[in-house]
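Long-time lurker. I teach an intro course on protein structure, and each term I like to show students one example going from raw sequence to a predicted 3D structure in token notation. This year I'd like something fresh instead of my usual example. Would anyone be willing to generate the tokens for the chain below so I can use it in lecture? Attribution to the forum is fine with me.
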Amino acid sequence: THYRVEVRRLLKKQLAVFDGRTLLLDEGNGVTRSDSPEDTREFKASAERDLLPLLVRLASGGLTVRPIGRKSETSVSRPVAEVLVSGSDLQSPIVLGIDTKSGLVVTESYPVPVDTTDTWIVEEFSDYRDVDGVKLPFKCVVRNMAGPLREREAEKYEINLDLAPALFDVGTPDKPARR
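-- Reply from a regular --
Happy to contribute to a lecture. Here you go:
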């Protein structure tokens, strides 16, 4: 599976392309290959946790899910049933919080190594909208035990697009792609 992620931060476009093994980055000043095993591992783990492909893998039987027998309240005070998602190819287990009234995923929790221990990160999804018959979250707040770390807001989703292979070609450090 290939991933292409474009992000705008402070009016600057950043691009990452990942083919499952190699992470290439372009932050506006040329393509670089990430030689950091930590960066590559984190990008792969992030791609594994991406909500839409994760739910598709669950629906196709590619992952195991089991209730963990607890209910909790999110910061927006919704009753939530939690399930543990696991699979031999996941780097770590994922806990999904499912709104008991709507059936929508409202939280996704996962461990992230910090120094010598793991800290749990919680992503809270909201502002679900219909996109081609699928409800998708347009807002996400990422938290740890200390509080909010960052917020994301999607401008749009496009599903089942025919994408040109060139979109995944950022080149290499010694041979940049044409733009």
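Some talking points for your students: The two ends are 23 Å apart (CA to CA). The chain has two helices and 13 strands.
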